[in-house]
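Q: A reviewer asked whether we had any structural model of the full assembly, not just the individual parts. We don't, so I'm hoping you can provide one. Inputs are below.
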Amino acid sequence: GVVKDIINLTVYGKAQNRSYNRLALFTDTIGNRVSGSENLNKAIKYMYNALQSDKLENVNLEPVKVPHWVRGEESAMMLEPRNYSVVILGLGSSIGTPPEGITAEVLVVASFDELEKRAAEAKGKIVVYNQAFVNYGETVQYRSFGAVRAAKHGAVASLIRSITPFSISSPHTGWQDYSSDVPKIPTACITVEDAEMMARMASRGTKIVINLKMGAKTYPDADSFNTVAEITGSKFPEQVVLISGHLDSWDVGQGAMDDGAGAFISWEALSLIKDLGLRPKRTLRLVLWTGEEQGGVGASQYYQLHKVNISKYSLVMESDIGTFAPFGIRFTGGDKAHAVMKAVMQLLKPINVTSVDPYGEGTDISYWLQAGVPGVSLNDDISKYFWFHHSNGDTMSVQDPVQMNLCAAVWTTVSYIVADMEEMLPRN
Amino acid sequence: KPMQVHSGGGERSLEDISMEIAGYS
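A: Here is a predicted structure for the entire assembly that you could use as a starting point for your response.
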């Protein structure tokens, strides 16, 4: 009756809404937690104390060096055809502008292809990208490489339509990458509304001039930590099921959805197992990553440190795609392991969350997956996830306690059973 | 590069594993 006990405790019993309430206290107390910030340091200390108070085992901090980028003051004032304050959020790693800003005419393009065709017009301009949202993976290329592609043709700055399918004049930030062989130019995201407005203006032949000011600065890498806690295995303590989410966030909103909730349902899994008096045969290790938003920096350093034990990792799990109404899990692994996971998920019939779809993924577990370790991510209703992602809208108001209970039930069931089975998950 | 990935489990038949998992329900 283990799964029944897990469901009863988290969905109907004394632990219901606990992960939501813990997350609310955490985010209301700490706020957002960008890499290198004092807030992130406070968050790590908070969690270190909380995990110890929860009487989890081997609570420890693993040192990590993380990027330290600070946004500073920023603005974009349209000077022609009319005075208008364009809503912006600078993109992570962007350089700043001179104090007086950069004033330049705008070139609006709808795609990289159009930019290439109109490359001769880009020199000395601020390139505005008004790319359509196709899906996150495809469209995020504009955020990641928009500045480099524009600078290659002599642009002085780039403004990129936020990577979201829906907007109420909400800019969405995120990391962007420079290239060593192209001059660095300031880059920020703008709202869907402003991108479309400038595209309309440009299509009429209207000249657009913007003064862009960004006070962004990059400091030397900062000290940070991956936060680790365990329930030690009873029979194979050296073997590990890793369950995780990331503690850092962007510097807007509260980082409640991305990825406070993922981190907190992972913590909840260990809490529930402990509350039920269970101890799996293998060690269940909680890792709350740092520096995920800068490209999985904490996860990369964890992998370098622990890959020597890769043969002992039965399963790696990461929740970083929301904790909305769950459908089941996504799984990366061989056919036999996939069949095992299907059998595990059948145990969750009482809450009707049984699907096992391919492509378990997550930035922080990607190194392990590439090396052949089976991996799981949550499969939940992400239809609104990118509405709030990396924006001021990522707050507790996005979260639903009942949905978090269901996600916690899935997360706990999968992690506990895989950690408790007689054999590790088979690998191809 | 990681050490060679252990083959993990796989000694037991899927039927055996499924029966074991069913025991958690």
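A: Points you may want to mention in the reply: The radius of gyration of chain B is 13 Å. The CA atoms of residues 9 and 17 of chain B lie 10 Å apart.
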